[in-house]
What does this fold into?
Amino acid sequence: MVPSLDGARVLLIAPRFFGYDEAMARELARRGAHVDAMADRPFDSPSYHAAARFFPRQVQRATERHYRRLLADFGSKAYDYVIVVNGQTLSPRLLGELRRDNARAQFIFYLWDSLANRSGALDLVPMFDRAFTFERETAARHGMRFRPLFFDDHAGGADAEDTFDISFVGTAHTDRHKVVERLDATLPAGARRFWYLYLKARWVLSAYRITNPSFRDAKAGTFRFEPLSRQESQRVFESSRAILDIEHARQTGLTMRTLEVLGAGKKLVTTNADIRAYSFYDPARIEVIDRARPRIADGFLEAPTPALADDIRYRYSIAGWIDELLTEQDQSAIHLKPGLWRG
It folds into this structure.
């Protein structure tokens, strides 16, 4: 049973990421909660982000002072829930202070980044009443709950006219551009495609040519060096029959884009073979391709997309995500095919 949040006080600490932190706060407030929000990685400069990722202890004290000032501004209050997403810059010391000052609060942790990139997150897990991750293997190995990501309702656009048969918009990390190039070469000549492989500067391409073998022969014309606006990215998404998803090579959990595609009722073409283990997997809606030899089965893009059951759509909406975080019962197994959860 999902507890009521009417009148509850919630402290939300989450990364600023494409408005998802705002969507979380909105959903909590819609349920009647009084929400105080603080940003994980609270400073926006590239140098701080890099330092927070690679030298977390060196920036910890400045970040703690920042958080303490915000908490003082929020005023003296006891929280009923403290919800932390990622917690990249939340130190065990500050978390301990929050626990001491909010002894009756439920502390809930959600890790939406791969543990391969956030190994320090394990230091925080024992300090929470419930801890979740979007990676099923990480959850089973470290005693966490498994909960995939979610979509915000802004992802809905299934009624828009299909301008593109398939599209990809994203950062050109690891071997993504190679996957796009290989797949593009297999598409019929008349296929309507839209590729937007973003790099933040030309010097990044130069650096990758030295450090990443997959970029050695990469041509500058393959990439875009200006980010696509959120509005234009959404327009492309809504105008696409199918979306290409290429997960980070070190990641096993499903991307946010995967859940957005599911919620919008579109088709998904993905390199993440682990999606076959999920209870919502439907080969009529989801095509898994080989990263090294990507090819879409004949007829997949043209065939009608089956309707998504209402309960599945709700489960992976932001409302369903909040429900699961608040529920004491472990629902990890529901996201996988029977017998596959090993937690």
The domain at 9-150+318-335 is CATH 3.40.50.2300 (Rossmann fold).
